[in-house]
Specification:
Blueprint (H helix, E strand, L loop, with lengths): L1 H15 L12 E8 L3 E7 L11 E8 L8 E4 L14 E4 L5 E2 L9 E5 L9 E9 L2 E9 L11 E8 L3 E7 L12 E9 L6 E6 L3 E5 L7 E9 L13 E2 L7
Antiparallel strand pairs: 1-2, 2-7, 3-6, 3-8, 4-5, 8-9, 10-11, 11-14, 12-13, 12-15, 15-16
């Protein structure tokens, strides 16, 4: 009942803010990533705060499974206009099916929340609802997603380089620590590298191991190397590139 009560209060706040002196707040900008798949989905948002606001913004973060997905299963309504308060109308949406659950925030002031115990390989999407209650109004954003479609691992860690005989460079790395079960939910990797002083990268991959030997590198040169990861089954998208590693000794000696 608590989320419903808070939503009711949020709607009441939107009515009470319709004085024609303050604009309706912008919708929260929300995005979600499954970088801890399959443990959880983590969602983040940014809010626009009015310069004349003295009270902090509170956020109601909830989610639900859509039992019957599709835009036709969302119920939308707007508060009726009061006088000349057209710009103050607020459009709120509620998913027609599925039980609502709190998206867990580490603190009340946090701009992130976690959806634990996600359902794997389900065709039924989730719907995240982020409602921001301001002193001057209320705004909501609704984000539908399927966990597998938003997988994006964190970058690989511990990239290191070892020069080998025969103009070769051995690259090693570890899976991101945030990826919980690399032995079960495997990752594949890409390497991009360039010689110091050049601008164009070369890229190799996918690579299933956590090491790779670059061949035919130039002797007496320094190389700049980064690694990216992606879910082995091609769900979602690849990570950002890792922090760069540079060969600590010149090659060819």
């Amino acid at each position: 009942m608590a989320p419903r009560l808070l939503l009711a209060l949020a709607l009441w706040a939107s009515y009470s803010s319709c004085s024609g002196r303050e604009a309706v707040p912008s919708q929260p900008r929300v995005w979600c990533w499954a970088f801890r798949y399959p443990i959880a989905v983590d969602c983040f948002w940014t809010l626009l705060t009015a310069a004349n606001s003295t009270r902090p913004t509170s956020v109601i973060a909830t989610y639900r499974n859509l039992q019957n997905p599709g835009p036709e299963h969302l119920l939308w309504f707007s508060p009726p206009a009061l006088g000349h308060c057209g710009p103050c109308d607020v459009r709120l949406g509620v998913a027609a099916h599925g039980e609502s659950h709190p998206c867990l925030q580490p603190t009340p002031e946090a701009t992130s929340c976690t959806i634990p115990d996600i359902r794997m390989f389900s065709v039924v999407p989730y719907m995240l609802n982020i409602t921001a209650v301001h002193a001057w109004g209320v705004s909501s954003s609704f984000v539908p997603f399927v966990p597998e479609h938003i997988i994006k691992p964190d970058p690989p860690e511990g990239v290191r380089l070892s020069p080998l005989h025969g103009q070769r460079l051995w690259v090693q790395w570890e899976p991101p620590r945030s990826w919980p079960f690399p032995e079960i939910f495997s990752l594949k990797y890409w390497i991009r590298y360039k010689r110091h002083g050049t601008t164009r990268f070369r890229q190799v991959g996918p690579i299933e191991a956590t090491s790779f030997t670059l061949r035919a590198v130039r002797p007496r040169a320094r190389y700049y190397v980064q690694v990216a990861a992606q879910d082995f089954t091609d769900y979602g998208e690849s990570s950002n590139w890792s922090l760069p590693a540079t060969a600590s000794v010149t090659l060819g000696k």
